[in-house]
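Structure tokens please, single chain.
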Amino acid sequence: MDKIFITAALTGTSISREAAPTVPIFPEEIAEQVVDVAKAGAAVVHIHVRDEKGWPTIDVDQFTKTFEAIQKATKAAGVDIIVNLTTSGSVKLEKNETRLAHVKKLRPEMCSFDSGTFNWNYGGVFVNAPDFLEDLSKCVIENNVKPEFEIFDNGMLGNALYCIKKFNIPTPCHFQFVLGVGGAAAATTRNLVFLQEMLPAGSTWSITGIGISHIPMMLAGLSLGCTGLRVGLEDNVYMSKGVKATNVKLVERAAELIRLTGHEVATPEETREILGIKRHSLEEYHA
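Here you go.
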């Protein structure tokens, strides 16, 4: 029976308390919900951080506070989790070294690798220039961090495959398809099939759909043999029309879908084996 892991994307950069009353913003809140989603079945948490006013930031000190709060809370609760730190920056155009400082300092088990630039939701530009992708490629290799190639559009997969080959990023690699963001690929089964069929043999992949495409994309992913599902308030704030979601409820629903389709929910340790991660961050911070 196949094991499928769940990633919980807890916070994001733009989800407000008005949109999602339970979204965690500050380090202790994020850490508390990491424990909760781990208990509900999540093996990976995808982490963005905010500043003291709740605005998105890439500040290394804020990442450090949040990362260490997670390590403290998981140790106290006796739960395991794989921490995946974003490298996507904030609404500003930060220098490459600023976007990578927290990865170099904290050496999480995973980090995001957004392999292209596009017009995000028709309201701004999500910039991932070639020189940044080169620096990020070198960073993940030098710091033994598993990159999660976030793929929002078809061309981003081509960029990812280029970086993997050019910079000798260890394979097999893991790809996270994020479909349904305005300005990028629509959340359709046809698009998912196209992307999935472009992956190199042996690759692992996960899927999330934004907003109302959340459940359709999970079901499509399960039918196509996905390795993981991503859920969380970063991607979707409703359980159903008019019913607000929580991170725990979204994880619980994903776990139920995995079991209903004849699979098992992978534990964090099983997920490390699936992804080829050699555990190091928890050992360092749980010493």
